[in-house]
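Why do we care about 3D structure at all? Because function follows from shape, and shape follows, mostly, from sequence. That is the central idea of this module. The next example makes it concrete: a single protein chain, its amino acid sequence, and then its structure expressed as tokens.
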Amino acid sequence: MTRREVEQCRDEILLRSHPVSFRRPAPRDNGPAAVLQPPRPDGVRSFRSRRGRSGEVAWACWASVADRAPWARGWAGAAGTLVPVTHGTLALAAAPSRRAAAAVGQLLRFGWLQVQCCLFAAAIFAGLAASSVVPLPIARYDALVLYGLAVTVVFYLLRLETWREVAVIGAFHLIGLALEVYKVNAGSWSYPEDAWAMIGGVPLYSGFMYAAVGSYLCQAFRRFDLRVTNFRWVPAVLLAVAVYANFYTHHVLPDVRWLIAAGFVVALWRSRVFYTVGSRRYAMPLTVSFVLIGFFLWVAENAATFLGAWQYPDQAEIWRMVHTGKWGSWALLVSLSFVLVAAVKAREGRFYGAAGAQPQVELARLDERAG
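And the structure:
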């Protein structure tokens, strides 16, 4: 193997590997007939460093050299990563640090995308916080209704929400408002302030809390480029109806929320949600995403009750943390909400969008025939 062949091989490795801090050593003139002998079995060759001391560096790469030189396979770190060895010691410290930096970068990108998905919810919470300290000419809950409508219009005009997403948000508002009226009259929670725009003791602005969940899901589909596979449409719809019904019936009948939750786990066992962060694609079980979103909604509920958006009976005299059992309720509500959004996304390319476009929700085969 000539010097030129070795250098071409090394350059190919550098191009195919992840970015590595590397300074190519200055070429030496060893005469026209100089030939670099094949590497020793340990993969080491010598060169003169820029400080004048001789060093020994071994270059190995899974994707390239290891295919040609069996001795290199033991030196490779991660696939496609160039690994230097100086003074006979594997310089593996740089690879973990690069991976850690990449992981932190991905986490920051993921967080930023989540912030963008929560813009509608953040706007509603900003209104709650501001209205609790700023004097208003009308009742606070009435002002929040006008504020919520204004936020919805602004988001549509700024193209942060499409008209279809606004329609989904409106459906969430109505579904949530109906549930609120029943729950408030059943004594589950209450709204301590008076207002003109109220139905059955429930201020109309309360529906925007549920609309924020719908907005988050719609935004997540777009910003994370979500793709859901093996979504079993028929059992998911039946379970979603059961979730909504149980919110009403558990006051007079046995509470079966945990059975319904188990049903979701079984029905969606093979369903996966794929999402993109930066240039990388990830996946997780769909039911796990419901639990995670439910947790953050429970955290948001604690913040909302602290701001006086509503209150539970045990918070009448002094604020205290919402019971952790509500986490499960929010996870079930997310499951119901996802089914509503999936009903729209599964029809992409048929009822809307570009003709023949791949739907973001891929139905399981049996359910696809049923649909």
